[in-house]
Design goal:
Strand order of the largest sheet: 1-2
CATH class of the largest domain: Mainly Alpha
Helix content: over 70%
CATH superfamily of the largest domain: Farnesyl Diphosphate Synthase
Low-confidence stretches: none
Shape: flat
Number of strands: 2
Order of helices and strands: HHHHEEHHHHHHHHHHH
Mean pLDDT: 91
């Protein structure tokens, strides 16, 4: 698909998202208390984002010769369901991580907190409302997907996959939470990779690609082969995100490295631990296990990660994973036309996401 075609699909997707919330306003009309919360939700979902998942879905559908144009309402509704799934996950994730901003604006629970700031306990109430609103968003996603006008058998297969990916993401989130209380020495890289796969890769890459392929009529063999493409691709993207978090070249941005602030057990941190000597490992563990990470703690973490050479090692690892994904595309399972389209889709998404290679 050309760059112009991608831009047209993006524009149509944004319009569909806006139209959906306008159409559903009466469905979710529960009175004056709920109306501003719905307004905030519409604003939250409508914020300019990468829309990686909907675009992956549309590009996969096109790659496998789906007969509908990419601006067909049913396709765009399915793409919107994936964005709503992402929203559901983000709202909950922001509460879990106690994040204040999302896409440079207040997180949803902070929007609610501001609306009820006059009430005692507004912070806790905002978090509680956000958790429940996230559940409502998931129900919206299911409704949108269920009402998409596709062959009932294909739609049922897609719905089953959609639910499975959602469950996997939840399990991945649980692992991420539990990893927060585990010592980095007792957390092998393989376990962190498994958490990444469940929490991010499954719903970010595999879900949209597989769902698009199924609705396009791709046979089971090619759908399974897609999973062998998205597994290394998703891990590579997650490593790149970890590396992007390490904004060490600008001291002013160090305090905004959320993963370091939260003591996240990322692959970059585990790689650093593996490469450091015993004394520096102890310092790294001390910094990660600190109940309150101060500026000096962040500086020490930065210095240890840089000293270990983990950034270069993980950058190489991401490159290897991208190469493996490309090899799976060219494995002979896909037709030359399908392979070319999948390669182009990956290129466009990487460019769209602005993730450095």
């Amino acid at each position: 698909m050309s760059a112009d075609g991608l831009e047209n699909a993006q524009a149509a997707l944004e319009s569909t998202i806006q139209e959906l919330f306008a159409e559903q306003k009466e469905t979710y009309h529960y009175g004056e208390w709920f109306e501003p919360l719905y307004f905030d939700l519409a604003e939250y979902v409508g914020r300019k984002g990468k829309r990686v998942r909907p675009l992956m879905f549309l590009l996969s559908y096109r790659a496998f010769g789906g007969p509908l144009p990419l601006d067909h309402p049913s396709l765009l509704r399915c793409a919107t369901a994936l964005e709503l799934l992402h929203t559901f996950i983000l709202i909950h994730d922001d509460v879990i991580d106690r994040s204040d901003t999302r896409r440079s604006l207040p997180t949803y629970h902070k929007l609610v907190e501001r609306r009820i700031s006059a009430f005692e306990g507004s912070e806790r109430i905002g978090e509680n409302v956000a958790v429940v609103m996230g559940d409502i968003v998931f129900a919206m996603a299911l409704r949108v997907l269920h009402r998409a006008d596709f062959d009932p058998v294909l739609r049922s297969k897609v719905m089953d996959r959609f639910l499975g990916y959602t469950a996997d993401t939840g399990v991945g989130e649980i692992y991420d939470i539990l990893f927060g209380v585990r010592d980095i020495a007792q957390l092998p890289a393989e376990e962190i990779e498994r958490m990444y796969h469940l929490k991010t890769t499954r719903y970010t890459f595999e879900a949209p690609c597989v769902m698009g392929a199924i609705l396009a009529g791709a046979p089971d063999g090619k759908v399974d082969a897609l999973r062998r493409v998205t597994d290394p691709l998703g891990l590579a993207f997650q490593i790149q995100n970890d590396l992007a978090e390490c904004r060490f070249s600008d001291p002013m941005q160090l305090a905004s490295c959320s993963d370091l602030l939260e003591g996240k057990k990322t692959l970059v941190v585990r790689c650093a631990f593996d490469r450091l000597d015993e004394v520096d490992r102890s310092f790294l563990q001390l910094c990660l296990n600190s109940a309150r990470r101060t500026e000096s703690t962040l500086v020490k973490l930065r210095d240890l990660i840089l000293k270990s050479g983990a950034l270069e090692t993980m950058k190489d690892r991401a490159g290897e994973l991208f190469a493996r994904a490309g090899q799976e595309v060219d494995s002979g399972v896909f037709s030359p036309e399908e392979s070319a389209q999948i390669h182009e889709a990956v290129r466009l998404i990487r460019q769209q996401a602005r993730v450095p290679v």
